[in-house]
């Protein structure tokens, strides 16, 4: 069995934490939107998931913890999905996409 380096283990643990936080975030959004969530196509949910994963990496943990994702509206999600598509198509740089994500999430910030 091959030896796993500390770096590989660290990267994998980071990936697992990211996935867990994104999954928790998606659950909050899904519960708050109810039927509106089920109307969102799977492809758009995947774009949102990928964008939130990259945002989780870029945004500080304390700030991330202050966002109330359950307060996001369907219009907010549509905007986030649009940012995700623009980023995938290279119409927007990663740093600009993250700033736009933060702007969308800003109204959900809790003290």
Give me the secondary-structure topology.
Elements: H1 6-33, H2 35-38, H3 42-58, H4 61-66, H5 74-88, H6 94-105
Model description:
With 111 residues, the protein is an all-alpha fold. It has one domain (6-108). It has helices spanning 6-33, 35-38, 42-58, 61-66, 74-88, 94-105. Helix 1 (6-33) packs across helix 3 (42-58) and helix 5 runs antiparallel to helix 6. The longest helix is centred in the N-terminal third of the chain and has 28 residues, at 6-33. The model has no long low-confidence stretch (mean pLDDT 95).
List keywords for this structure.
111 residues, mainly alpha, 6 helices, globular
Range of helix content: over 70%
Mean pLDDT: 95
**Ends distance:** 49 Å
Number of helices: 6
The biggest sheet, with number of strands, parallel, antiparallel or mixed sense and barrel status, is:
none
Global Rg? 15 Å
Tell me the β content. Answer: under 5%
Poorly predicted spans = none
Shape: globular
Order of helices and strands: HHHHHH
Q: How does the helix and strand content classify structurally? A: mainly alpha
Q: Give a count of the beta strands, DSSP E runs of length 2 or more.
A: 0
Number of domains: 1
Q: Can you give me a brief rundown of this structure?
A:
With 111 residues, the protein is mainly alpha-helical. The protein is built from 6 helices and no strands. It has helices at 6-33, 35-38, 42-58, 61-66, 74-88, 94-105.
């Amino acid at each position: 069995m091959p030896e796993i380096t500390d770096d590989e283990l660290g990267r994998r643990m980071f990936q697992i934490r990211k996935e867990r936080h994104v999954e928790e975030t998606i659950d909050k959004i899904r519960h708050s939107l109810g039927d509106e969530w089920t109307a969102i196509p799977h492809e758009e949910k995947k774009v949102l998931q990928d964008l939130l994963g990259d945002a989780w990496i870029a945004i500080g943990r304390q700030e991330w913890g202050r966002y109330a994702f359950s307060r996001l509206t369907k219009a907010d999600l549509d905007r986030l999905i649009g940012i995700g598509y623009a980023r995938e198509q290279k119409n927007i740089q990663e740093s600009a996409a993250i700033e736009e994500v933060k702007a969308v999430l800003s109204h959900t910030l809790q003290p």
